[in-house]
Amino acid sequence: MTGRISGRIVIDFDGDEGRAYAHSLGIRPHVRTGGGYHWHLRAPEWRVGNLVGKSTHGAPDCVDVRGDGGNAILPPTVTRKGPYVYLRDPADLDTLDDLPLTLREALRLVPPLPAPPPMTGPLPRGDDRYPSSRILDWALQKVQDGTLGGRNDTGYHLAWALYNNGYSHAEVLQVGQTYVSHVGHQHPNGRGAPYTLDEYRASMRTAYTAPRGEPWGYSSTDARSTPQTATQALEDVYAQLPPEDQARAAHLVAREWAATGRPLEDTIRYLRLIGHTAAPKAARTAYQDHERGEAMPGSLDGFLRARRVRYGRGS
């Protein structure tokens, strides 16, 4: 039995292709199987799923993972493909750190993201009102794409939309506090003074006296839409990532945008808006790596899916 119950997981390198791949990684397998190698690793504290490379996007076809609830054949078993033979002491377990990071991500061998910390209080809502959390999400997206102007203009539209949907002064202010906490220090071009709660309050006063618009539609199944793109998903989880993963995610975004010809300024702006503190340096480094023709160090899709972040219509 593999997984936490036995303290070990097994990486199965299958067939001649798997053996060649294991050699390319420079690893020392524990078992020669009838058709490949088994490499025994110390099980991590978090649950490891069983994975078949051929049916997992981004994973090598010749590599499978036996994790919690799985099993692996041990020597001296003989199958129709041949005998299983120990190549080293099975008690001498290697660790996940012995795998390249890109392969760990492809095989879903990184810890899942922790649950987000609870808010000090839930955002206001009501069964007959469009959820304020979704109106806030809409405003944050508008800040990113700039279609409503800057943070101040978008703050006005946020307050106006909340009033249109029946929220009180206190509730509009509560949502505004969250809005300011997200965008207050994220100036799109890195210059200018922070956006403050006093500025949002001024927008509230203007929005309250403006002609009312129609309330937004509401569906009971529409409480929180699933992100449709990798960058939208990253916006949702960025604050939960440890610093080293924040840096890696920022680098992957910048490398992918460099490859598609996105302007460097767009990339810096996006990284600032998600809260990356070293946005200019991270973006420029990634663009320089692209210009030098360096190999991609993974993908944002693989990074997110390895951490069980769901997005897209198939989620």
What does this structure look like?
- With 315 residues, the chain is an alpha+beta fold.
- The protein has 3 domains: 8-106; 115-225, no CATH class; 230-306.
- Helices cover 41% and strands 9% of the residues.
- It is built from 11 helices and 8 strands.
- The protein has helices at 15-25, 101-106, 132-145, 151-164, 169-183, 197-209, 230-237, 243-259, 264-274, 279-291, 300-306; strands at 8-14, 31-32, 36-42, 51-52, 63-66, 78-79, 82-83, 85-86.
- The strands form 2 sheets. A 6-stranded antiparallel β-sheet has the order 4-5-1-3-2-8. Strands 6-7 form a two-stranded antiparallel sheet.
- A hairpin with a 2-residue loop joins strand 6 and strand 7.
- The chain starts with 7 loop residues before the first strand and ends in a 9-residue tail after the last helix.
- The model is unreliable at 218-224 (pLDDT under 50).
Structurally, how many domains make up the residues? Answer: 3
**Which class of secondary structure composition applies to the elements?**
alpha+beta
**What is the 3D form?**
elongated
What oligomeric arrangement do these chains adopt?
Answer: single chain
How much β-strand is present in the residues? 5-15%
Return Rg in Å. Answer: 25 Å
Which stretches of 5+ consecutive residues score pLDDT under 50?
218-224
Q: How is the main sheet built? A: 6 strands, antiparallel
The first-to-last residue Cα distance is 30 Å
Average pLDDT across residues?
87
Strand segment tally: 8
Q: Order of strands in the sheet with the most strands? A: 4-5-1-3-2-8
Proportion in helices: 40-55%
InterPro entries: DNA_primase/pol_bifunc_N
Protein name: DNA primase/polymerase bifunctional N-terminal domain-containing protein
Domain DNA primase/polymerase bifunctional N-terminal: 2-97
Organism: Deinococcus soli
